[in-house]
Write a structure and sequence with these properties.
heterotrimer, A mainly alpha (about 400), B alpha/beta (about 650), C mainly alpha (about 220), B: about 650 residues, alpha/beta, six-stranded antiparallel β-sheet, 23 strands, disordered C terminus, C: about 220 residues, mainly alpha, 2 domains, 8 helices, 2 strands, about 0% strand, disordered N terminus, GMC_OxRdtase_N (chain B), P2Ox-like (chain B), oxidoreductase (chain B)
């Protein structure tokens, strides 16, 4: 989160040159990833077989965040940058400050499935029109504002590059000079909450930004996202409104508006069917010698491995996405297993507190992950494998 | 989107076409005719609801909660539209035989071990998703090998429709390999999606078998083994070479799900993510002119003027648990029966229609399937119970001269361990623990617990391999479906199917040869031990489907057994002559110009291919024909006949 | 169907899980990780009666401390131990040896059933070979092409359980005096393998073994 927090501190302004645009896009990767552990915690603390609607709705958002992450990587690659997702500084410590927002907002914790968790989710996905127009002390109001600046930057910088090429003999007529083989496409990434597509020019770049912001907060002043028009998919409400449905236990109706309460059919939400956790727990809080401590460490190692595979997929080996998806499914199993275990302290367990992943990543995990990733790729039998050396 | 209606709402109404059944055949015909603007009514006997995510999830729960994960484990029984289940059959000891309960009445020497489902989407809801093509020679076994029946239409004539079926089903395969096998005629053909990846086990089989030769002594032929990938109706990576590109279609009623097979390893009975194709997808394409009503059991085709038909009589019920129903009728210019081979035959027999040849219900076929299972040596784990049911097979025994001597067969290399044969891996747990008592019911002494149990189970299960060998059964008029409405009726009063089934010598020889060949394949594979056993068990009772067979007089006698494959076919067989077949090459009944019977029931032979793909191609061909017929009916020149409508 | 252990855990739950560890060969972490511990405890109580279960645990715990281990158990207790293990391994309660069913004087039918649609996917048997349950926990596109992961050796499993017994969160004395191997190394004898099902209608726990055991003397179902 280091890039996003640095940009937050420097205040809102459009990126002045391509180098700065790349910095913005790296921050976008961080922002999109920030939400994933938060939503995963809410989803996987649900007890088996219960709260199905809520589980599926949160899952759909997590998938879309993965799509956003991938689209952000495609954007960054398209403008000649290099995504950087496989290091400890990429991941926020939780509770995390929401970047590009009013710093007086509460921090984002890891919370089990609960009304409080859904309130947090809604805070993250809050549409711009819901945000008080008066900016906070940094000048930032919302992530939507951040994406507006990226959008503006893309348009302005592309136009400037075109002029520089025409008038001043700049070599390239476009800022989209990144190698096209770095783009992750639909052949490599599926079930992805819409469709991953290659970013190769201003048009596809603006579409990518549109997908990222519409899926979150909805098409301007509606509750709907744009997947049906962009991808021909079933029409669904944007993230904020999907979370609101769970929070109030009722779906939106066809004619509902952003400011009205959902008026559709009831949803079966049972808040008690969740494993309560201490979202602030760190590995060091779990006693030495406890199985939970070992497993929480193992989880973090595997998470580092997932980020390492994503790094490879985003830096010239898009086929590695095919190896990353199974690891995402492994994270599902590993986190569910942790949440189902009592907190490894008899007194806290007596209060029905449960264990959970801590999402703490350290450098050495990434070292080991790189070795394993190289092994995985070598072991693949498909002919399409590219050679990789860490 | 599908327009759903009810039986009472359509009572007395007139449509261009009425289609009985919402499985592959019915859905393909309905989709095609809807797109042409015709008013179509689809009547589905079974329950609906799986077209919503919550409804589909309910069937996944039913599967999870079922003790025995048989093909119908995900689908609740239905008293108003009953259907057979493989659980209906039990063995008898002396003499070795079988008894049956449930939907079928069985009178033959051997059991018909195949089931189907009456529900939205039909038996396609529990199909495996295998879409191998038939070989050109499969269409002409009478001419080439002097057995079975020829088709009135050739592989070349069907090619265009097979391609369309592969697109609409959404097929993944290696076209070059299939071309090499001789079933794809065009060397440049591409499937919409890339081949489903082979399992780790498949690679072991390929490493150890490819290039080796086994002799089938009965056929008198040496066969060079080669592992081929299986074309599948299952979502895989889109094929960039496919003309126009392809975007996999995922779950019905839920975005971002099922766009690839994620390896649930439960294709049959149910794919939880719907990466396995099903008619529910096609139903999403229905235009507004297609109306679909579930829980409407057609009981009779209504006769019209002359030799035409007028419509159908059906009963609508509300609760699948209690067969309380109300009779209605609906009328149409054309009636299409697409209710499964056996149900189509029952309907034609109950309606006393299309049977001037006397062949309605005759020629019942299946792929009698013999299982062979073995344990690999320690240190050679295959990683079973992963991936689709089978991803490769050995194809060499399907074609060529061997067919002159015995029925041909296709060897599926199963990915799910000994599941089918022994109930593994759950039965491994019981056996290793020593659960359940001995033959006398006393508590066993032997058994393993703790770390040893965990360790040994992992080691054992990891080495299970199983071959599923599907043998061709040719059309034999003695294998047949009849009805006896005075004695055997179901809950709503419709006649139950009465089956008389057997395997003739040629088929039994095929099973015999398959067993002998499987022993040699296991030897070539280097298995540690072949566990295959088809004879009587410790209690003296032989399994369902058991028979003892001697291929040659004085020769070796083998204990053999087969399972049903779910490939019911042949009951309204297709031919060019009205005297010796029920439908013509367009699946129109010879006797009634506006009555079609579509589906596997029309197939004169099923070769050694899972029949869905060919059946789907036939349905598309019929859909084109029905469109032409309707267009002709509606042309101004035919106005003179309008008054008769 | 779903447990309602949301506020204060069942007082016998911890003991049930901890004493299931040496039966199943899976650490308490893996047992809790099924999410089914309370459901299984309720299921066993429903099948045996609450006091018979407590009696079983009271017998099993001291038996553990002997070198004989499970061999120390009476035939009936051993069949109970098998059934509890089967429940953890498959998510279903098995058909018992008819003699055990009679001796327990159960009023429920002696047939296999799945404890809940949510329990079947949590069966431990799938973990023994690093697989996943059919129809749940899918591992992702193309994963079936990968070489199956290496499985832990017997020694590694014993060590894992020893370490688990020393977990500060584990309270019951659940480390056995010794882990004895019952069967020789090499492939498992055929009488511990399942044979073919006479029909598809035979439940997994009722599938006959592939061969009769070498020692055909059954034990008495006395209590």
């Amino acid at each position: 989160m280091i890039t996003a927090y640095a940009l937050t501190r420097s205040g809102p302004k459009p990126p002045a040159d391509v180098e700065e645009l790349r910095t913005y896009l790296q921050a976008a990767l961080e922002v999109e990833h920030l939400t994933i552990p938060v939503y995963m915690t809410g989803m996987y603390t649900i007890k088996p077989g219960t709260n199905r609607y809520a589980h599926d709705a949160i899952r759909s958002v997590v998938l879309e965040e993965m799509l956003h992450l991938t689209l952000a990587a495609n954007l960054l690659n398209a403008v000649g940058g290099t995504p950087n997702v496989d290091n400890p500084r990429f991941v926020a410590g939780y509770p995390a400050q929401l970047p590009f927002s009013d710093p007086s907002l509460p921090k984002i914790p890891l919370q089990h499935f609960s009304p409080q968790a859904l309130d947090t989710f809604m805070l993250i996905e809050r549409p711009r029109s819901f945000v008080p127009s008066k900016p906070g002390q940094t000048g930032w109001t919302s992530i939507g504002q951040f994406y507006d600046l990226i959008r503006q930057g893309l348009i302005d910088l592309e136009e400037q590059q075109r002029r520089d090429h025409r008038d001043r003999g700049a070599a390239s007529p476009t800022i989209f000079t990144g190698p096209p083989e770095r783009q992750v496409g639909p052949e490599d990434f599926y079930n992805s909450g819409g469709e991953v597509f290659a970013v190769t020019d201003l048009k596809s770049a603006l579409l990518a930004v549109e997908v990222i912001s519409d899926q979150g907060e909805g098409v301007a002043d509606t509750i709907w996202d744009s997947d049906d028009t962009l991808f021909g998919e079933e029409r669904q409400v944007a993230h904020y409104f999907r979370f609101k449905e769970i929070r109030v236990g009722r779906r939106y109706g066809r004619h509902d508006l952003p400011r009205t309460e959902p008026s559709g059919p009831l949803i079966d939400v049972t808040w008690d069917d969740a494993y309560p956790i201490d979202g602030a727990a760190k590995v060091r809080d779990y006693p030495e010698g406890s199985q939970v401590r070992r497993q929480a460490q193992h989880f973090n190692q595997r998470y580092a491995y997932l980020l390492t595979l994503l790094q490879l997929a985003f830096t010239g080996h898009p086929g590695v996405m095919g190896d990353a998806v199974p690891v995402m499914l492994e994270m599902r199993d590993l986190s569910e297993r942790l949440y189902r275990n009592p907190y490894p302290d008899p007194h806290l367990a007596e209060l029905d507190l449960h264990a959970g992943p801590t999402f703490e990543l350290v450098e050495e995990y990434f070292d080991a992950a790189h070795t394993e990733a190289a092994e995985t790729i070598r072991a693949r039998r498909t002919a399409t494998t590219e050679e990789y050396t860490p | 989107m599908t327009v759903t209606t009810t039986g009472s709402a359509v009572n007395g109404r007139r449509y261009d076409v009425i289609i009985v059944g919402s499985g592959w055949a019915g859905s393909l015909v309905a989709r095609h005719l809807g797109k042409q603007g015709w008013q179509v009514l689809v009547l589905e006997a079974g329950n609906g609801g799986t077209d919503t995510w919550a409804g589909y999830q309910d069937t996944v729960d039913t599967f999870s909660g079922a003790v025995i994960k048989v093909p119908n484990a995900a689908y609740r029984r239905n008293a108003a539209a009953p259907f057979p289940d493989v659980l209906d059959l039990s063995p008898t000891a002396d003499p070795p035989g079988y008894t049956t309960t449930g939907h079928f009445v069985q009178t033959g020497p051997l059991p018909y071990g195949t089931d189907y489902i009456r529900a939205l989407g039909g038996a396609a809801m529990h199909w495996l998703g295998a879409v191998p093509r038939m070989h050109p020679e499969d269409y002409a076994t009478r001419d080439r090998y002097r057995y079975g029946r020829n088709w009135p239409v050739s592989a070349a004539e069907l090619e265009r429709h097979v391609r369309e079926a592969e697109l609409l089903i959404g097929s993944a395969g290696d076209a070059t390999a299939q071309w090499g096998l001789g079933v794809v005629p065009d060397p440049d053909y591409e499937y919409p999606m890339e081949e489903i990846p082979w399992s780790h086990q498949d690679w072991i089989f390929q490493d150890r078998l490819d290039g080796k030769t086994v002799r089938d002594a009965l056929a008198g032929v040496d066969y060079a083994l080669k592992v081929y990938g299986l074309p599948q109706g299952r979502n895989s990576t889109p094929n960039p070479l496919f003309d126009g590109g392809y975007r996999p279609r995922g779950t019905v009623g839920r975005p971002n799900f099922g766009e690839r097979c994620v390896g649930n390893s439960s294709c049959t009975p149910i794919c939880p993510v719907q990466a396995k194709s099903s008619p529910l997808r096609l139903q999403q394409d229905f235009t507004d002119s297609v109306h679909l009503a579930t829980r409407c059991v057609v009981s009779r085709v209504l006769p019209g003027r002359g030799n035409t038909v007028r419509g159908v009589e059906f009963r609508e019920y509300g609760d699948p648990a209690t067969p309380v129903s109300t009779p209605y009728t609906a009328e149409a210019d054309i009636v299409v029966l697409a209710a499964h081979a056996i149900e189509n035959a029952v309907l034609l027999l109950a309606s006393e229609m299309a049977n001037s040849s006397g062949y309605v219900g005759c020629h019942l076929m299946d792929h009698p399937t013999m299982l062979a299972w073995a344990r690999m040596p320690q240190g050679v784990p295959v990683g079973p119970f992963r991936g689709p049911g089978h991803t490769t097979g050995l194809e060499c025994f399907r074609f060529g001269d061997g067919r002159g001597k015995r029925a041909p067969f296709r060897i599926e290399i199963g990915n799910w361990g000994w599941g089918w044969a022994t109930g593994a891996p759950l039965s491994n747990v019981g056996a290793m623990l020593g659960l359940g008592g001995d033959a006398k019911g006393e508590i066993k002494k032997e058994g393993v617990f703790g770390p040893e149990l965990r360790n040994r189970l992992g080691d054992e299960i990891n080495r299970q391999v199983q071959l599923q060998i599907a043998v061709e059964q040719h059309a034999d008029p003695a294998n047949r479906v009849t009805i006896d409405p005075r004695r055997h009726r179901d809950g709503v009063g419709n006649p139950k199917p009465i089956l008389h089934y057997d395997l003739d010598k040629r088929v039994r020889d095929g099973v015999f040869a398959a067993r002998k060949v499987s022993q040699k394949i296991f030897a070539a594979l280097g298995v540690e031990k072949d566990f295959t056993h088809h004879g009587p068990g410790p209690d003296g009772v032989a399994p369902v489907g058991y028979f003892k067979h001697q291929a040659e007089p004085g020769g070796e006698a083998l204990d053999l057994a087969y399972h049903g494959a779910g490939h019911g076919a042949g009951t309204h067989i297709m031919g060019s002559s009205a005297g010796s077949s029920v439908v013509d090459s367009y699946q129109r009944t010879h006797d009634h110009p506006n009555l079609f019977a579509v589906g596997c029931g029309s197939m004169p032979s099923i070769g050694t291919s899972n029949p869905t793909l060919t059946m789907a191609a036939l349905a598309l061909r019929s859909a084109e024909k029905i469109h032409r017929d309707l267009a002709e009916l509606h042309q101004p020149v035919t106005l003179a006949t309008e008054g008769t409508r | 169907m779903h447990t309602s252990d949301t506020t204060s855990p069942d007082p016998e739950l911890r003991r049930f899980v901890e004493l299931s560890m040496p039966l199943t060969g899976f650490a308490t972490y893996d047992l809790y990780a099924t999410g089914m511990a309370q459901l299984y405890l309720d299921t066993v109580r429903g099948q045996l009666g609450a006091s018979r279960l407590t009696d079983f645990l009271d017998t099993w715990q001291p038996a553990l401390a002997t070198v004989e281990g499970a061999r120390q158990l009476s035939p009936l207790d051993r069949e109970i131990a098998r059934a509890v293990t089967y429940l953890w391994y498959t998510g279903g309660w098995p058909r018992l040896a008819p003699a055990a069913h009679a001796a327990l004087r159960r009023e429920v039918p002696n047939t296999e059933f799945v404890a809940s649609p949510s329990s079947y996917p949590e069966g431990l048997v799938w973990r023994t070979f690093a697989g996943h349950p059919a129809g749940a926990k899918p591992p992702g596109f193309g994963t079936w092409a990968n070489e199956p992961p290496a499985l832990p050796t017997l020694e590694e499993i014993v060590e894992e359980l020893r370490a688990a017994a020393e977990d500060p969160a584990v309270q019951a004395a659940c480390a056995p005096a010794a882990y004895r191997a019952e069967v020789p190394s090499g492939s498992v004898p055929v009488h511990l393998m399942p044979g073919p099902r006479p029909s598809r209608a035979v439940a997994p726990s009722a599938v006959p073994a592939a061969a009769a055991p070498p020692d055909t003397e059954p034990e008495e179902a006395s209590e």
